[in-house]
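re: ur question from earlier - yeah i can do the single chain one, its not a big deal. heres the input i used so u can compare w yours
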Amino acid sequence: EFNGRLEVTFAGTVNGRPWSGTLPTGPLPIKIKQYGRMAGDFSLPEGVVVKSVTAQVLEGVKVRAAQTIKL
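and the output i got, formated as tokens:
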């Protein structure tokens, strides 16, 4: 069983200028026994164009897994 946190970071532009943001709730605690799936939604500031999303799974301060998706 793994206990850690999930951090999600978004990067893109707003009005042509660089922008980045995270989930409004901050990192999410996660507990994994085998495989898991998470889903959710939240609102972005007006005018934001998301170019990539990065998810990191952390155990304490150590990054155990990371994935970036370019949109």
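The chain has a mean pLDDT of 92. not sure if urs matches, ping me
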